[in-house]
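Bump. Still looking for protein adenylyltransferase structure tokens.
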Amino acid sequence: MTLENKLGLTNFAELAREEEKLSKKKALALFENGILDQLEAGTFPALKEIHKYLFDEIYDFAGEIRSVNIAKGNFRFVPFMYLSAALESIEKMPQTTFDEIVEKYVEMNVAHPFREGNGRSTRIWLDHMFKKELQKVVDWTQINKEDYLLAMERSPIKDIEIKHLLKSALIEDTNNREVYKKGINHSYYYEGYATFKTKEL
Ligand SMILES: Nc1ncnc2c1ncn2[C@@H]1O[C@H](COP(=O)(O)OP(=O)(O)O)[C@@H](O)[C@H]1O
Ligand SMILES: [Mg+2]
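Sorry for the wait, here they are.
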């Protein structure tokens, strides 16, 4: 089962490959053309804009809040009935310290506002908050894939692991295109085909 897409692809692996290629290109463009700089850090409109930009050529739902319930593994993300209310309260969460920013990120992951592509768009949103608020960014190449996924699976219950991982990978070189590009390439590989395993309930 493949998600309906604008590319007309019905083959699972082919959609995964094209989606990755296109959205990576868009992720880099987001940095290069200065769009990121104009977004207001930590807001839902910023995340929406990022998601729309990454996936507009691929999915009709780019930038649109989902209207289905979804889960990964045993974890059910916020039911779509409560999503708008959840997003409103997440937006109000403080973001002045490292801990507050990660806590906000964890809550946004629990919300998982989009049908697909939450990981990729929300990591950019997180990095954007670090950059604007703390003048730091994440060097994703320093974060191991399995460690990251385990920490995210654990994060709704305990955020100590994701905090530790992110803290150890923060750097001060905030405007380096190579760091950003390598980070995108590295962190995309976090899920690979597994990204399609989000269950619709
Ligand atoms: N079991 C889980 N519980 C909570 N969050 C998870 C779990 N598994 C993965 N995640 C988070 O969800 C993200 C994947 O969401 P998804 O919507 O598929 O985004 P993408 O398609 O961009 O990878 C991961 O990057 C991770 O941050
Ligand atoms: Mg996915």
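Residues 116, 119, 191, 195-196, 198 surround magnesium ion (ligand 2) (CB under 6 Å).

Edit: fixed formatting.
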